[in-house]
Amino acid sequence: MSDALSFAKYQGAGNDVVLVLDAEDRRPLGAEQVARICDRRFGVGADGVIRLVGDDVDGARWFMDYRNADGSLAEVCGNGIRCAAAFLLDRALERGPVLRIRTRAGVHDLEVDGEGLGRRIGVSMGRAAFARGQIPMLGPPEATFLGEPVELAGARFLAAAVSIGNPHLVLLTDDDPEGIDLTAIGAALAEDPRFPEGVNVEVARPQGEVLVARVLERGSGETLACGSGACAIAAVAERLGRSPVRATVRFPGGDLEVERRAGDELWLRGGAAKVFEGAMELP
Q1: 132-265 fold
Q2: Residues taking part in catalysis
Q3: Rounded Cα distance, 118 and 43, in Å
Q4: d(CA 247, CA 44)
Q5: 222 vs 216: CA distance, rounded Å
């Protein structure tokens, strides 16, 4: 296994990612290789792969080259970047309690609190953007799609489109998300021409400061949690008067906390821990 790919698998609220250290940018991974790694029968099994490359941009020492489970490129992954921070700390490549990592959506600040299984990592996810041109979503660039009644897979929702560095469609409901056919909703939206770059879909039920949710991630299918999705849900629920500024988004894989700080900056916080390390041969 001399040419095997060394990796570590981490998870944040059940959102699992494979992390590969490539400090000198010598081993890029193609879409087919990433899809093989993420395959839960023939590979490691994960929602995506992060290749960490040495960087020097605006105080960030690392670039997060992230691909979804199907190998497609993604702008950012909120749980993934928190897992990347945990990986760098575990390997003494960063010291904390603050660090910066660059993604395709820009540079993100991170804060670390605690150690081991009790460690919690927060990340700045930027501002929620509701203009169609920023999402992107077809239509007048400055117009919004916010609080629109829609019916999908036999269920009714209040829908809102938002960007958290990547596109999201949040569907608010008064029903239990567990009973909603998320697969059918995803199929209905998979080829929706209004979203030229695809869209992540969240179904959420506001319950005061807690928002119970499920998520369908573009390029990965249904996942146990989604960091940028948590921010999208919280931002939409607050804008529509269904949730306070600070909220807990409860996914099947666990809870994620979202708060809005000065300048409307959204911060995502939760646990991130190593599952195992290994090596895998790739074609």
Answers
A1: Diaminopimelate Epimerase; Chain A, domain 1 (3.10.310)
A2: 77, 226
A3: 29
A4: 33
A5: 4
In this predicted structure, the answer to whether residue 1 has a pLDDT above a threshold of 50 is no
Q: How confident is the model at residue 114 (pLDDT cuts 50, 70, 90)?
A: confident
Note the pLDDT of residue 116.
Answer: 78
pLDDT at 97: 95
Pairing mode of beta strands 60-68, 48-57: antiparallel
Which one-letter DSSP state was computed for residue 97? S
Q: Can you spell out the DSSP letters for 55-93?
A: EEETTEEEEEEEEETTS-B-S--HHHHHHHHHHHHHTTS
Rounded to whole angstroms, how far apart are CA atoms 118 and 247?
Answer: 20
Q: How far apart are CA 164 and CA 254, in angstroms?
A: 20
What helix, strand, coil percent values describe the chain, rounded to 5?
Answer: 20, 45, 35
* Res 118 pLDDT > 80: yes
Q: Do residues 228 and 219 lie in contact, with contact meaning Cβ atoms separated by under 8 Å? A: no
Instruction: Kindly report, as residue ranges, where domains of CATH 3.10.310.10 are found in the chain.
Output: 5-125+270-280, 132-265
The encoded tokens of residue 6 equal 């060394």
Residue 69 predicted with pLDDT over 70:
yes
CATH code of the domain made up of 5-125+270-280 = 3.10.310.10
Q: What DSSP assignment string belongs to 140-199?
A: -TT-B-EEEEEEETTEEEEEEEEESSSEEEEEE-SS-GGGS-HHHHHHHHHT-TT-TT--
Amino acid 96: pLDDT: 83
Q: How confident is the model at residue 3 (pLDDT cuts 50, 70, 90)?
A: confident
